[in-house]
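Changelog-linked ticket: magnesium ion example.
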Amino acid sequence: MGRVVQKFGGTSVKDIEHIRNVAKIVVKAAESGHQVATVVSAMGRTTDALIALADELTDDAAPREMDMLLATGEQVSIALLSMAVQSLGVKARSFTGAQAGISTDGRHGCARIKEIDASPLEKCLSSGEVAIVAGFQGISGKSEITTLGRGGSDTTAVALAAALKSDSCDIYTDVNGVYTADPNALSGARRLTAISYEEMLELSAAGAQVLNQRSVEMAMNEGVPIRLRSTFEPDDVGTLITHKFDTPAYTVCGIALDTNQVAFKLKLSQALFQADGSDGTLPYPEGVSELLQRLNKLGIACDMFTLLGRSEQSALELFFTSEKRSARKVESVIDDLKEALGHPEIIVDSDV
Ligand code: ASP
Ligand code: MG
């Protein structure tokens, strides 16, 4: 008898029939004597649909209202899953992020978990009830509902596993483990029985969709082993993500592909740069620092920042990538700063 944290993604709870199936997995764990905390995502493509509704209304939704909207998706799932578990004769109680004691910072749309007050869930588990927790959401110090960024339910699960000192953290999804490549893209892809946190982190950062990158980071820092497994083959043990236990026989553990990126190239004028004289390199122009700060403040994840040709006389180019969905926002920040950036020529490439 122990304590387990389970997480089910959107495809696992996409309709009532699927929710009934998930309830069976939950009940099986509870009936084998475990204390069970279950994290769920929004049903199917609910989050995308909610975003589309907001997009229909405005180009410029307030981040606070976006979080208010998106957090509803997970709330539907926890209520329905609790009912499904109860109808199988097992006691269950649903919790929003706030009710589960999940405190975050105030960055709407990309909040970070700061602290978990585990006492409400401890109380629920010790009274023999299954705790069913909304993934992807928390509450800020100012009592505002926040969300953790797309795919954030994985992070909720890992954070709860750490806070509840759970014996395991099972992330159930629509694939039966971590593969050496996307099996839909590469027929020779093989499933791995185990992979280290470091390797998984690299794969997630490079675009492997199977686990949210931040959840892997947190699992590594908190020492929470994750078992990634399939909702549809619940007896299959999937892939264990854990500390490196020996030196693997391979040199490359896998390949990832990310088609969801867009590249920005800004041709900057030489006039923006003034030599600082000390080592011959040129300092970052203020417009560039301002751009980085603004993007960071908006929580827009950018990568591969490079300033090319900084010590030459020509071909100064700022290069970076962002997620496709943020492209419009990035363009408008660049537009805001066009003066400070010296009216750069801008090339946007979405075929990368
Ligand atoms: N429902 C949220 C999303 O679609 C969170 C998650 O699924 O983990 O991104
Ligand atoms: Mg997900």
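Closing comment: Example verified and attached. The longest helix spans residues 63-87. The two ends are 49 Å apart (CA to CA).
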